Amino acid sequence: MNAAIYPGSFDPMTLGHLDIIRRAAKMFDELTVSVLDNKAKNALFSVEERVSILKEATKNLPNVTVDSFNGLLIDYARQKNVRISVRGLRAITDFEYELQTAQTNRMLSCGELDTVFLTTSLEYAYLSSSSVKEIAAFHGDISQCVPDFVAKLVYEKYANR
Ligand code: ADP
User: Has residue 17 been placed in a domain?
Assistant: First the structure.
């Protein structure tokens, strides 16, 4: 079985994430999109909310499942018996961090966990979860950045703050 994990914060999931998910789902028999429960990051959405958004957005992709994890990716991947992590690369600025993470994961897993990088589709190259939050916080238009149902949830969060 050719399986992979796409880990990330997804706070919130953007069209850039969704593009990587759709493309990775064509490359692997099983893709698990997994929300990292990183208590250090001050997230807008709870892990449960992020999982539920991802589930809704991927409901038409039968080989995609959504999950969450905390701790080290290598431990989670070993537990799920998966040896490939998928990550998206937008720009040179992502590259250094992603390279370091991928190499660390190889070292920690004794070569068991490899990382496959997908380069971003150009129309989403500028997109990040943080810019979505920044724009929404100032009531800007995020309709080009996230699916409509996600935009609604993001605006609701800021309206209730
Ligand atoms: P992190 O996991 O670093 O907290 P994110 O949850 O925002 O970051 O992103 C998870 C993965 O998706 C990372 O590999 C990131 O580079 C990638 N990614 C984020 N935004 C985009 C985008 N617009 N296009 C392609 N890949 C993206």
Answer: yes
- In the chain, how many domains are there? 1
- Owning domain of residue 9: 3-122
Residue (of 131, 101, 118) closest to 11 by Cα position? 131
Active site (annotated) includes residue 109 = no
- 71-116, pLDDT tens digit by residue? 999 999 999 999 999 999 998 888 999 999 999 999 999 999 999 9
Q: Is 90 a catalytic residue?
A: yes
Q: Which residue owns the Cα nearest ligand 1 atom 12?
A: 88
The tens digit of pLDDT for each residue in 21-64 reads: 999 999 999 999 999 998 777 899 999 999 999 999 999 999 99
CA angle 42/134/156 to nearest 5° reads 80
CA 36 to ligand 1 centroid distance, Å:
12
CA distance 21 to 16: 9
Q: Is the entire prediction scored with pTM above 0.85? A: yes
Q: Is 32 in the pocket of ligand 1 (CB under 6 A)?
A: no
Does residue 159 belong to any structural domain of this protein?
Answer: no
Please tell me if the CB atom of residue 120 comes closer than 6 angstroms to any atom of ligand 1: yes
The domain that holds 85 is classified in CATH as 3.40.50.620
Domain membership flag for residue 25: yes
Distance of alpha carbon 130 from alpha carbon 137, whole angstroms: 10
